[in-house]
Specification:
By secondary structure, this protein is an alpha/beta fold. Helices cover 40% and strands 20% of the residues. It is built from 14 helices and 14 strands. Strand 9 and strand 10 form a beta hairpin.
């Protein structure tokens, strides 16, 4: 008697020409726990919060959760407190009609949060959103937390799925789709657009699949049955603005390379241009003999009258952990909150200027302030790169 089928790890799904491994789907206990939470909150309204400056992974994953929640008669609003500044993110939202709402802090303060039964955190743990203090003040419980970043702090959500071994939250949400929480319809334009967004989020956080794991490829294979390739191509073809190119030029001019690490401060930027910083870090990483690039700048938010040092780290060195590197470099604030963190091969940090924050028309003063913070950030980074 042939028992080979009992030991074969591959099974055929209901999707055409798609093979997957059962262990790569959502584990049954987690699937049951998630379903129980959704059923418990049927008929309610939730607030989905993503980071202030959302990337494709956060945008697509939040949308996927929203569509899943709708299956349980749960209404939700996807909100962010900052700005969409990366040209691809703007194109993604516009071309897919992604249902997202910008809530600047002053506007958010006027919102009646009592209409929501709970808060949902997707692709973040509350540390990168200026809206979280309002959520806390309104005593809004955290119902669901799904993220692929390392644990930042214990939030005690009703349901949590944190998998730092995954390259993208979009991969995790795609597993929820594969596990039956939403059956995508290739004739449904909203489903097609969401699948396209998830494919973009997955590609973005895996460096165009060059750093993809088995789970990422499997998720991409599933999404390939539904996404719109021409729509994704339109998103990826969005041009860099002149301001982004100027920041990249500044990063090249100001870079300092030590022990294969490129560090560059790019000076003052408007909040609408802050996504130029990670793009500049990506560009510096392409230089010969550079395995890690860090780019940072002083970002001025006119709306909230705040200034913060914003930085991005990119690396292709397997032994360098961006999360540990950034946390060790910059430490925590007085409340114990880390100024930054990361995931595999990428990270970021934000350091408020506090009392020194604010625009000053005196150019000499502004230049002195930048020089001080530029030297301080560079010193903390170089201390880790080479203690001597």
């Amino acid at each position: 008697m042939n028992n080979s089928t009992q030991s074969d790890p591959l099974i055929v799904s209901n999707e055409p020409s798609l093979l997957f491994c059962p262990e790569l789907l959502l584990p049954i206990p987690k699937k049951q726990a998630f379903q129980k939470v959704l059923e418990h909150h049927t008929g309610e309204r939730q607030l989905i919060i993503i980071q202030d400056f959302p990337d494709p992974d956060a945008l697509s994953s939040a949308w996927a959760y929203q569509l899943i929640a709708q299956q349980y008669n749960i209404e939700s609003d996807i909100v962010y407190g900052g700005t969409l500044s990366h040209q691809e993110n703007i194109a993604l939202v516009k071309l897919t009609s992604l249902p997202i709402h910008r809530w600047p802090l002053e506007m958010a303060k006027t919102k009646d949060l009592s209409v929501y039964s709970g808060c949902v955190l997707i692709d973040n743990q509350g540390t990168t959103s200026q809206l979280m203090p309002l959520v806390k003040t309104a005593n809004l419980p955290i119902t669901v937390l799904i993220d692929h970043h390392s644990l930042q702090k214990d939030l005690h959500p009703e349901y949590a799925d944190i998998r730092p071994q995954f390259k993208a939250t979009a991969t995790i949400l795609t597993q929820y789709l594969q596990s039956g929480f939403l059956e995508l319809d290739s004739n449904n334009s909203q489903h097609i657009n969401c699948a396209t967004a998830l494919m973009h989020g997955l590609r973005s956080d895996t460096n165009q699949l060059r750093q993809a794991t088995r789970e990422d490829f499997l998720a991409a294979a599933y999404l390939s049955n539904y996404y719109d390739a021409s729509l994704l191509d339109s998103v990826l073809r969005s041009s860099r603005s002149k301001r982004v190119m100027d920041v990249i030029e500044r990063a090249l001019s100001n870079r300092q390379v030590l022990d294969n690490v490129s560090i560059s401060g790019v000076g003052y930027l408007r909040a609408s241009d802050r996504d130029a910083i990670p793009q500049a870090a990506d560009f510096l990483l392409t230089e010969e003999n550079v395995h890690t690039a860090v780019v940072y700048g002083l970002v001025h938010d006119d709306f909230n009258e705040l200034e913060i040092i914003v930085g991005s780290l990119r690396t292709n060195k397997i032994t360098l952990d961006p999360d540990e590197f950034i946390k060790e470099a910059f430490g925590t604030d007085v409340t114990g909150k880390f100024f930054g963190g990361g995931r595999s091969q990428a990270g970021g940090f934000e350091i408020p200027l506090g009392f020194l924050s604010g625009f000053n028309e005196n150019k000499d003063y502004a230049e002195i302030k930048w020089k001080v913070f530029d030297a301080q950030v560079k010193q903390k980074l170089l201390r880790l790169v080479n203690p001597n």
